[in-house]
Every structure is written in structure tokens, then in C-alpha cells.
Specification:
The protein is of the alpha+beta class. The protein is built from one helix and eleven strands; from the N terminus they run αβββββββββββ. Strands 2, 3, 7, 8, 9, 10 and 11 form a seven-stranded mixed beta sheet that branches.
Length: 154
């Protein structure tokens, strides 16, 4: 039996440590993100300063960012994406995960007022009805349901 040379042992140790750190970083990234599901919009949707064009979208939330959690929205083809900080949180509402939207005649789109997130036990408010500055059409908000996917777990 021939003894292992120090250079080979150091090379093996460095390679093993690199692989271990890569695996750890990958596990932390996937553990910190909850895939909420997908939703489809048939009309333009105004969300903060972003206008989502008609199409299919994916919702993810980063649960490790503290003290503020970040919601990621991107189109199925990745041509549109945005991040939204989850600040104003209210009690979760019944009905699953959905976007609450109201038509805005001035901007010509549906305005996102809130998103209900049962997985976080929260209803995040983006635009409170009393603070809206533009005239809206309709008395009641409509809901755009978010369909959980196999990765969601809710």
C-alpha cells in the first residue's frame, strides 16, 4: 500500500469543501423561497409602478429576508418580473391565495389592492381604498385566484 501524498490529500479536501459549500448554498436558497403558485391576467394589471400585461405569471415569496419579506412576480416566459416588499400586513382572509384588484378608469387597468397569503397567515395591503387618489370603477374588488402548483405545498 502506498501512502497518500500531502498534495493529493489537500486537493481532495479542497474539492470536498467546495462541493459541500455549494450544496449548502443551494439548500439554503430553496428553503428560503416558497413557491405560491401561478395566476393568469386577461387585462392589464397595475401593481405599484409596474404594469403586468395579459398573460401567465408566477408568485414566489422569500421567507428568509428579514425584517421585510419580498414577493417576486414574473411572467411565465421571464420577460416581465418585479419584486414587492411586504410591509402593510393584515389578518388573512378566507378563500385561498388571490390578488384583490379594482378597475381604475384613469390608468386603464386593474389595480392590485392586496394579496391574500394563507401560507404566511397574512393579507398584504398595497393600496388601501381610503388612500386611493384616482377614481375607481365598481364598488367591489374582484379576485384573481392564484393556482398552487406541485412545488407550492399549500
Amino acid at each position: 500500500m502506498t501512502p497518500i501524498r500531502n498534495s493529493n490529500l489537500r486537493l481532495f479536501t479542497a474539492l470536498f469543501a467546495t462541493l459541500l459549500s455549494c450544496a449548502s448554498a443551494t439548500a439554503q436558497g430553496s428553503l428560503g423561497t416558497i413557491h405560491l403558485g401561478t395566476f393568469q391576467v386577461n387585462d392589464r394589471v397595475c401593481w405599484s409602478n409596474t404594469v403586468l400585461q395579459p398573460g401567465n405569471y408566477v408568485l414566489d415569496v422569500n421567507t428568509l429576508s428579514t425584517p421585510v419579506k419580498m414577493l417576486t412576480v414574473h411572467s411565465a416566459n421571464w420577460k416581465q418580473n418585479m419584486m414587492v416588499a411586504l410591509f402593510q400586513i393584515d389578518d388573512v382572509q378566507p378563500g385561498g391565495t388571490y390578488l384583490s384588484v379594482t378597475p381604475d378608469r384613469t390608468r386603464g387597468c386593474l389595480v392590485v389592492g392586496s394579496i391574500n397569503l394563507p401560507v404566511l397567515k397574512a393579507n398584504v395591503i398595497f393600496s388601501h381604498p381610503a388612500k386611493r387618489t384616482t377614481p375607481l370603477v365598481g364598488d367591489l374588488d374582484a379576485q384573481i385566484p392564484v393556482t398552487p402548483s406541485a412545488r407550492t405545498g399549500n
